[in-house]
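Support case: zinc ion complex. Customer-provided input:
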Amino acid sequence: MTHCCAEMAKHLDEGEVALRYDPRFRGYGIPIFDGGSAKQQINFCPWCGSRLPESLSDKWFEILDEMFPDFDGFADDRTPEEFKSDAWWKKRGL
Ligand SMILES: [Zn+2]
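Agent response - structure generated as follows:
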C-alpha cells in the first residue's frame, strides 16, 4: 500500500478533506489558506495514528542545490523529470 491505511488513501484520492500528499517530498500536509501552496506538515495519520514517513523535502533541495549551485526552487525549469514525482527517492531507496 502506498499510504499507511485505507482511510488515508481514500481521503487523499477523493481530495475532499484538507489533507494533501506531495509525492515529490513524500510529504503529508494540511493546506494553509494564504492563497499559496504552503502546507503545515503532519507527522501522524489522523485516521490510524501511524507515524508517517519522514518528509524528504530537505533532501530534495540538498540534491538539487548540489546539481545546480544557483538552484531557484520549485520554479526552476532545470528540475530533472524524476524530481517532479516520487521517482527520485524510490530509485534511491530512501
Ligand atoms: Zn493511516
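Residues 1-54 form one domain.

Case will auto-close in a few days if no follow-up is received.
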